[in-house]
Design goal:
Blueprint (H helix, E strand, L loop, with lengths): L2 E5 L8 H13 L3 E6 L1 H11 L7 E5 L10 H7 L4 H10 L5 E4 L3 H12 L9 E6 L7 E4 L9 H18 L6 E5 L10 H12 L3 E6 L3 H4 L4 E3 L2 H26 L3 H9 L1 H11 L1 H4 L2 E4 L4 E4 L6 H16 L2 H14 L8
Parallel strand pairs: 1-2, 1-4, 2-3, 4-11, 6-9, 7-8, 7-9
Antiparallel strand pairs: 5-6, 5-10, 10-11
């Protein structure tokens, strides 16, 4: 049975969302869960969702919490008994195969990098997010916020990791990998994208060249590579747009008697639309490049998002994604393909 450790004090709705999500996951996914946080508080919360304590859920005590306002580096140095640090140690020491946190993204990334360590051949870890597309199969966008500044070499590493993600988790046979830019032509883009283009061409990937912002949703590419600044802007714009569309649809469907009747008739279709664009269904963003599995969730994650993040973490752990990324990077680095440029 795969064991996933949860930073139960990370999110805006902690620890209720984390505990409820853990209970849902333990009941339906066949995983073992370790909740990390103040033992007394988590015990009380767990009893409200699992009165008999018959689920495979364990509690590990942590006396400190990293807040969204904390400086990541300072929090790592000073809060040595924080819930995220204890959670990361459980993965490092083999008590869990992966972790889930809805906490401070910078602090989670810093902690995972320093406690669990990096995969050889990776300069910096990257966050990968699955975006829904018109063709059904999600596109993997990497990086969506771990690195504000990147080098061509880092983008090449992101491409390899994103390719692994798409092949292993979404079972895409030969993922089409694109570089996010402002035009399809090779000469378009900024210095980073133009410098990364020849490096990406040397990789043994199905590299299709530059793609544009609209291709995030068309399904034209299976993996889209970008630096964390651009990727995070794309992610936040997408989240905001989804919220606006759902709000507008709700207003329109409630405006008149005719539209209300139409809503009743199309209720299942509307529910399916919300499910396809709801971030909580995707669970969270894998932090690729670290040893072990790390899934970072949205700060406002609800129980459903936590449950799905546990599902994703278990899938990654069962497929040994981190080990397969390490193996591929090692073989490619031996050929000099991911280190051809700085």
């Amino acid at each position: 049975m795969v064991t996933i450790a949860i930073d139960a004090m990370g999110g805006d709705n902690a620890p209720k969302a984390e505990v409820e999500g853990a209970v849902q996951a333990a009941r339906s996914l066949g995983v073992r869960v370790i909740l990390v946080g103040p033992e007394e508080l988590l015990s009380r919360e767990l009893l409200s969702f699992d009165p008999g304590r018959d689920l495979p859920i364990e509690i590990r005590n942590a006396t400190e919490r990293v807040t969204m306002e904390d400086n990541p580096a300072k929090a790592f140095r000073t809060k040595k008994d924080s819930s995220i640090r204890i959670t990361s140690r459980l993965v490092r020491d083999g008590f869990a195969q992966g972790l889930v946190s809805a906490g401070n993204t910078g602090a989670v990334m810093t902690t995972c990098k320093l406690v669990q360590g990096m995969i050889p051949g990776v300069d910096r870890p990257a966050l990968a997010s699955a975006f829904p597309t018109l063709k059904g199969n999600p596109v993997v966008v990497i990086d969506v916020g771990a690195n504000v500044d990147s080098t061509p070499r880092m983008l090449a590493q992101f491409a390899v990791m994103g390719d692994c993600y798409s092949r292993i988790i979404f079972r895409t046979p030969n993922p089409r990998v694109g570089l996010l830019s402002i035009g399809e032509e090779e000469h378009k883009g900024n210095e980073l994208t133009r410098s990364a283009m020849p490096v990406l061409k040397t990789l043994r990937l199905n590299f299709i060249g530059n793609v544009e912002g609209r291709d995030l949703y068309t399904g034209y590419a299976d993996v889209i590579v970008c630096d964390g600044f651009v990727g995070n802007v794309a992610l936040k714009v997408s989240e905001g747009l989804v919220d606006v569309i759902k709000h507008m649809l709700r207003e329109s469907l409630a405006a008149t008697l005719t539209s209300k009747i139409g809503y009743v008739l199309s209720k299942s279709a509307f529910a399916e639309f919300k499910k396809r664009v709801d971030y909580s269904e995707y669970g969270g963003a894998p932090l690729l490049g670290i040893k072990g599995i790390g899934i970072i969730c949205h700060g406002r994650s609800n129980a459903n998002a936590i449950k799905n993040a546990i599902r994703v973490a278990a899938e990654f752990a069962s497929a040994h994604v981190d080990e397969r990324i390490e193996s591929e990077l090692a073989s490619w680095s031996a050929e000099g393909t991911t280190s051809a440029a700085d």
